[in-house]
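// run 5 | inverse folding | seed 20
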């Protein structure tokens, strides 16, 4: 388990990948939990998830929590791989429940009755895979908190 928390504290790519994910996902989580950015807030999102989309309340709750807190953890680089994995499962669920049959392209023209495609998700999963492989990288709490023991042991070899 400790190996999942280790990261290369000089890895800039890991920093860019996790910040890109956090910057894009945080507003979605904030819409769902807090009602920011024109969102429905917790109660409105739970109503939508359970009554309109018809998923269980626990799945609706997990979507809200994972998108909000997962993006904050990624921004901080804390428990980075766990947050990235949670977001990966979250968006696999979104693809299966909401996006799957809509084709490749996003609905830029806002054609009524046509949903969004999965092109955005390919980019998102690419960044998530980078984050799962590299961890938090530069300027992450993971590097600061969990690499200390490793640095100390390397000095005395």
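// decoded
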């Amino acid at each position: 388990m400790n190996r999942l928390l280790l990261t290369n504290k000089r890895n800039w790519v890991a920093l860019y990948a996790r910040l890109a994910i956090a910057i894009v996902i945080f507003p979605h989580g904030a819409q769902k939990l807090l009602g920011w950015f024109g969102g429905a807030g917790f109660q409105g999102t739970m109503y939508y998830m359970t009554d309109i989309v018809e998923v269980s309340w626990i799945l609706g709750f997990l979507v809200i929590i994972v998108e909000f807190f997962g993006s904050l953890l990624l921004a901080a680089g804390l428990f980075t791989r766990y947050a990235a994995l949670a977001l990966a499962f979250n968006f696999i669920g979104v693809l299966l429940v909401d996006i799957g049959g809509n084709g490749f392209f996003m609905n830029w023209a806002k054609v009524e009755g046509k949903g969004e495609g999965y092109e955005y998700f390919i980019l998102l999963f690419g960044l998530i895979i980078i984050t799962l492989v590299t961890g938090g990288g530069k300027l992450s709490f993971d590097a600061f908190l969990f690499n200390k023991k490793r640095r100390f042991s390397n000095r005395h070899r």
